[in-house]
């Protein structure tokens, strides 16, 4: 059976759902199909228990504000991510205002964001970071304190049981958020399904991607019936999380050659005890240990999932050769190609610290994990916490002219020169900036259409300002942020 659509979205996660929603807003007549390997949306990385659920906005993530060689704080990444999150909020608010999208309370809720440090050097760094950020309009509501009474008000679960002479400090931004990206993804998909020309199918395995004129022929197998079919399309988006790399390799496009993936699994400690949960209403991030990768930044998070509040602490890293939580142990070895072998070997050679870190993490006992938690919450009791397996993250490995290959901890869009196919690789900060990532993809792959008067007008109706404008215009930032926050019931 051969079908024809304008767009095929592979993977029912936050990225495909966001791209589908954007394209339908820009062109209501566009015909698209979303296919997913599993039996519903948001089961992998977008699932609320497979990620931190932080509305990443640079408010508390210390790895976004590194200290430079001259001792100053580099704030560029934190500011940029903050403004990209505001772009995401604009789309979610726009959809909410339509009245058919559902309540924002199902996926986003206000939760203060705190950065917490201990020790002389940690406090000195945090104070310097506060002073560097506080001067920018994105962070003008940030507070800093070393006062124990104030800190007890901010994080009452974390203060009892500490040594009286322990030097600690924290910053706090009341306007942070907790986001259930699984609920958001499924809300976006349900919204798409109400639109004409949209098909969403689950238990669908893409087993072939072949060039067809200016577009693609996507070969799909129904895992329930065993039936196969082919879809002719002008554009394919590979938004399958860790599964995007093998699909990119399947496409054979020149731009995808040389990319590899390094899979990292994760674990959390989870608490559902109402007495404990009630004492912590914040997301509290601290510093990674010296030599540890950015993914290891410890944090104690208040989570709201399906109307129930819990606490998560972690992450604890692990290693597996799977690219997806529901994947195969053969994923990593089968991804090795002549074109990416050198970069992967170079990364293995240059990242022995990461290897040692992962081995150490995998070998930890439950008591050792609880010891890490007690640095945040000294009076934590073992019986209140259980170990949960989080989602898979496949970090990007790519060619590097100087070293042969490098490992990256961000996200990257890899697209064919003709814009007919694109894949999103990598992870953090991922879901929080999904709207900016997909707008970038649209600019690259739908370049002619996005310049048209029709698409330009529709974009301006959704987005009052892009990230760059928000970075540079304090009054515009305040106006846009306040407006979207009101619609999303965050203020």
UniProtKB/TrEMBL annotation:
Pathway: Carbohydrate metabolism; tricarboxylic acid cycle; oxaloacetate from (S)-malate (quinone route): step 1/1
Keywords: FAD, Flavoprotein, Oxidoreductase, Tricarboxylic acid cycle
GO MF term list: (S)-2-hydroxyglutarate dehydrogenase activity; L-malate dehydrogenase (quinone) activity
Cofactors that this protein relies on: FAD
EC number: 1.1.5.4
Leading EC class: oxidoreductase
Listed InterPro entries: FAD/NAD-bd_sf, MQO
BP terms from Gene Ontology: tricarboxylic acid cycle
UniProt keyword annotation of RNA-binding present: no
Catalysis performed (reactions): (S)-malate + a quinone = a quinol + oxaloacetate
Name of a matching Pfam family: Mqo
HAMAP family linked to this entry: MQO (MF_00212)
Family of this protein: Belongs to the MQO family.
Annotated protein name in UniProt: Probable malate:quinone oxidoreductase
Taxonomic source organism: Pseudomonas fluvialis
